[in-house]
Amino acid sequence: MQQKPTIILGIESSCDDTAAAVIKNGKILANVIANQSVHEQYGGVVPELASRAHQQNIVPVVEAALKKASVAKEDLSAVAFTNGPGLLGSLLVGSSFAKAFAMGLNIPIIEVNHMQGHVLAHFIEELDSASSTKKPNFPFLCLTVSGGHTQIVKITDYFTFEVIGETIDDAAGEAFDKVSKMLELPYPGGPILDKNAQQGNAVYEFPHPKVDGLNFSFSGLKTSVLYFLKKEIAKNENFREENLNDICASVQKTIVDILIKNLKKAVKQTGIKEIAIAGGVSANSELRKQIENLKGMGCNTYIPKFEYCTDNAAMIAITGYYKYLEQDFASQQVVPNARMKL
Ligand code: KG4
Ligand code: ZN
Questions:
Q1: For 87-115, what is each residue's pLDDT tens digit?
Q2: How far is the CA of 310 from the centre of ligand 2 (A)?
Q3: Residues 6+ apart with CB under 8 A from 338
Q4: Ligand 1 pocket check: which of 33, 35, 277, 281 to mutate, most ligand atoms within 8 Å of Cβ?
Q5: For residue 187, how far is its CA from the centre of ligand 1 (angstroms)?
Q6: Ligand whose nearest atom lies closest to the CA of 175
Q7: Which atom of ligand 1 is nearest to the CA of 115?
Q8: Which string of DSSP letters, residue by residue, matches 116-151?
Q9: How far is the CA of 281 from the centre of ligand 1 (A)?
Q10: Which ligand is nearest to the CA of 181?
């Protein structure tokens, strides 16, 4: 008799994107995202509005994913969902839906740590295997950079993660977003700053933080950009507009230089030469370029496809798939943890 395939529905609702994905035996069948435009007018995510939008989006997004995958809900093996870290109200919508949906189908639920999901996005396989990206070999180091996290993680197997460096204040994505706001760029700042930076030259210099070990700090950069702008605008009130692309390129280069410097240190310290990047900021053009410099140290580098960098449910479904193989299921009593650690 043919073995039943393992089909996982993944649900992601930790911040401002409502997403659902279907993965069959590790291969992606559907990856659907509803972005929430309601936050644009506020220049940042408003948590209460995010949870309301998740409530509106979750049913149509799951339906769309199942339809795109041509999978009937009765064929699902389990439902995996982000249980933290993230915004509590947003997490509650995804986790409550996942629990109820799975209970109705009498199938298990699998809780997923969002940051583990970002890392395991490297293991998503495409239906057409030729278009899959290469998977890192264990053990590997992953620079995980998002709106709330900046970490260097040592990954020994699918479930063993050790954070060996992290930010002591702002995350790298937060630095991109806060500087974008100072430059009066629209939300979401990171990708727009990146676009402008690609038209400019990194002609301005900003100081690097002095932090111990493999840790990061980005709050000082924000302050030095603020004072730099104040000083230059006092001399020329059109300074920002006239030099926008060069300012963006300079800030972007500084952030990426800081990230790469510590990653190189981590390679020397651990001797591990399998190096990956993950999380929203891994979509950044300068980071994707600079990570290739590590090849000069004899490293193999792994960059996720764009659609698996920023928040998505495919990464939740693939993590769910590996947890399913271990029969690592959650109870219906599980509750979201907004500050869940790796
Ligand atoms: O992983 P993610 O989608 O959500 C969180 O888990 O936080 O990451 C979002 C972060 C935001 O700070 C966003 O500005 C940043 O990733 N980001 C970028 C780029 N695309 C997204 N930052 C710099 N350059 C980009 N191209
Ligand atoms: Zn994320």
A1: 999 999 999 999 999 999 999 999 999 99
A2: 6
A3: 84, 85, 86, 87, 88, 91
A4: 281
A5: 11
A6: 1
A7: 6
A8: HHHHHGGG-B-SSGGGSPPPPPSSEEEEEE-SS-EE
A9: 4
A10: 1
DSSP state of 186: P
**pLDDT band, residue 62 (cuts 50/70/90):** very high
If phi > 0 it is left, if psi is from -120 to 50 it is alpha, else beta; for residue 89 that is alpha
Q: What is the DSSP letter of 328?
A: -
Give me the pLDDT at residue 339, please.
96
Q: Span 328-332, mean pLDDT?
A: 98
The whole-number pLDDT of residue 1 equals 64
Burial code (b: 16+ CB inside 10 Å, e: under 16) for 83-116 equals bbbbbbbbbbbbbbbbbebbeebebbbbbbbbbb
- Among protein residues, the one whose CA lies closest to atom 21 of ligand 1: 280
Mean predicted lDDT score pLDDT of the chain = 97
pTM: 0.97
Mutate which of 33, 286, 288, 310 for ligand 1? The one with the most ligand atoms within 8 Å of its CB, which is 310
How much is the average pLDDT of 128-137? 94
What the block records as the tokens of 166 is 């992290």
DSSP type of residue 3: P
Separation CA 131–CA 75 (nearest Å): 26
Atom of ligand 1 nearest to the CA of 279: 1
Residue 94's nearest CA partner among 26, 8, 12 is 12
Ligand 1, CB within 6 Å, residue ranges: 15, 146-148, 173, 176-177, 188-191, 194, 279-281, 283-284, 310-311
CA 115–ligand 2 middle distance (angstroms): 7
Cβ distance 250 to 202 under 8 Å? yes
**Band of residue 153 on the pLDDT scale cut at 50, 70, 90:** very high
DSSP 236: -
Going by pLDDT thresholds of 50, 70 and 90, the confidence category of residue 43 is confident
pLDDT digits (tens, 9 = 90+) for 159-195: 999 999 999 999 999 999 999 999 999 988 999 999 9
